Amino acid sequence: MECKGICPELEKWIRESRDFRRREKEMEVRVDKVSGLVLNEFYLLYYLERNPEHKLRQQEAQELIQMSQSAMSRLIQRLEGLDPSLVTRCTCDLDKRGIYVQLTDAGHEVYSRIAEACRDILVEDDNK
After folding, report:
1. Among 75, 88, 92, 127, which one has the highest count of C-beta atoms within 10 angstroms of its own C-beta?
2. Collapsed DSSP state (helix, strand, coil) of residue 28
3. Averaged pLDDT of the chain
């Protein structure tokens, strides 16, 4: 199918992309206001919270959040360095080379506050 002039599929994609970027910016502002974290730090807490054991291999977290190994290491180091620490690192019992990231109780509390604040943004947006 050839698109000459206005292409409906492209128009739809651009509109959805613009709406996504607007919502993402609102989320970034809210996450920062509620916790002082950036969005990728919240994403890590989110994925850890979703896991029944509240932990993930660092490599899996990198793939889920789409970050490089070095960027993920810095992100984890920052969350570990907070007082109280939101995550901890531990080695895999079976493969001592594997590194796990685990959510702490403080991390769970921060996740819950942010999730509620972000849910409100999405509910408000859906009601517009």
Report:
1. 75
2. helix
3. 91
